[in-house]
Amino acid sequence: QQPSRRKKRALDAAYCF
Hints:
This is Transforming growth factor beta 2. It comes from Passer domesticus. By secondary structure, the chain is mostly helical. Helices cover about 70% and strands about 0% of the residues.
């Protein structure tokens, strides 16, 4: 599953933490 591009940014930040 691949989230939206703008949502991907938020997901990326969450994964970082």
